[in-house]
Specification:
This protein has 1 helix and 21 strands. With 404 residues, the protein is mainly beta. It has an 18-stranded antiparallel barrel.
């Protein structure tokens, strides 16, 4: 793992020292929660690289401390995260997911520190979600994010909410190591990361987003200027002369739109972006519908039917595997006391027929335990597809978590 620059490490120590002083000065005013989990993952095919393994075990721990004062106008949130992985040193990592002070006034909020911010409405991918870096060693679906240092000022008016973001430090994407799976055929050497900006990780990024609710419509319009979160992977060599992939982070401008209309049992969703700065500018969009069948069979279970289309103007030149694809899914919520739920989906490439299958299911066990099941499969993936490096990485994962 890369060592943080000295000034960033100093800032982190200062924030942690302040957090510790706050916690120890008035610990009874705050609340601790969180979870610890034991995870096992089994791959159904032998690895393409002999350094990789057929099964993986890991342990994770994510506590959370929340404290508010000044009649709840000020609050502090601390969420560290750590995982130990049996085989992959790159997946054994620690992160500050949140280390945030928030001040809330009647018509504005100021948030400073390390935060996680989510933008987006679609199920298959989140094109507009660009504030936080993806923690790719956690899961290939890109849903897990690293904490992002920022200052965020939000104005709340009757015409909507305007969020301004200053992002003073860039987080590099995590990648599985040479012994880890769910990676390209060549390992990614993060120690050689390159930047378009001479300031590298110290380049100051910025973003603005307007969001509003109009009757059945939820609308978000955003613009981001700074270092792209998804790097280009260019060929290179490591210290021993072995071929590797080297991440290259360009400077980009991205304008995004996310819209969701809710009408009865129907949800209509759209995410669209225009990005330039990494070659010619291009458009990309994901849109679709979700229809929910409530109380199936006169019971309490709900079934949601999901369909989306994923488009990227660059076509075969796109750096994403989803440039002309269709996603279909089935969401099940039993609405029982155990909060049992599942989501089954498939993304099919309209050009090649390559298919990515995904299953996620969860169920509470008593008051403090929860079991999560996850399965992924990559079927009929041609050599030319960006997902080809994962074509032998079908897996089944079970996680048992304790919540406190």
């Amino acid at each position: 793992m890369n060592s943080p620059p000295r000034h960033h490490a100093s800032l982190t120590r200062t924030l942690l020292a302040g957090a510790l002083a706050l916690i120890t000065s008035d610990a009874t005013a705050g609340a601790w929660s969180g979870h610890a989990a034991l995870q096992g993952r089994i791959y159904t095919q032998s690895p393409a690289d002999p350094r990789q393994h057929d099964d993986v075990g890991s342990v994770s721990f994510q506590p959370e401390y929340y404290h508010s004062w000044n009649a709840n106008r000020d609050s502090f949130l601390l969420v560290p995260f750590v995982r130990w992985d049996q085989h992959d040193d790159e997946r054994s990592h620690a992160d500050l997911r949140e280390l945030t002070w928030t001040h809330a006034a009647p018509s504005w909020e100021l948030r400073a520190g390390v935060r996680k911010v989510f933008w987006g409405v679609t199920e298959s991918q989140h094109l507009v979600d660009i504030i936080n870096q993806t923690d790719l060693v956690e899961d290939p679906d890109g849903e897990d994010k690293l904490g992002q240092p920022m200052v965020n000022l939000a104005w709340v008016r009757n015409w909507g909410t305007l969020d301004l973001f200053v992002l003073p430090y860039f987080r590099e994407r995590t990648f599985p190591g040479s012994t880890g799976r769910l990676r390209p055929p060549l390992a990614v050497d993060t120690d050689q990361a390159r930047y378009e900006s001479a300031r590298e990780q110290r380049h100051v990024d910025a973003a603005v987003r307007w969001s509003h609710y109009l009757s059945d419509w939820d609308i978000g319009l955003s613009h981001y200027s700074g270092t792209r979160r998804d790097p280009r992977l260019v060929p290179g060599f490591d210290d021993q002369g072995a071929p590797v992939l080297v991440p290259h982070y360009d400077l980009i401008q991205q304008t995004g739109l996310d819209v969701q209309m809710t009408r009865g049992a129907w949800l209509w969703k759209l995410e669209a972006i225009y990005r330039h700065g990494q070659g010619d500018g291009y458009y990309a969009a994901t849109g679709g519908i979700e229809y929910t069948l409530f109380g199936i069979g006169d019971g309490s279970a709900d079934v949601g039917l999901v369909a989306e289309y994923l488009y990227d103007e660059r076509g075969a030149k796109a750096t994403t595997p989803f440039q002309n694809d269709v996603m279909v899914g089935l969401r099940l919520a039993l609405n029982d006391v155990q909060s049992s739920a599942a989501l089954l989906g498939a993304i099919v490439d309209s050009d090649s027929g390559a298919t990515f299958y995904s299953l996620e299911a969860s169920r509470r066990l008593g008051h403090q335990w929860k079991v999560d099941l996850e399965a992924r499969a990559f079927v009929d993936v041609p050599v030319s597809d960006p997902l080809y490096g994962l074509h032998r990485d079908d897996y089944l994962q079970v996680e048992l978590g304790y919540y406190f």
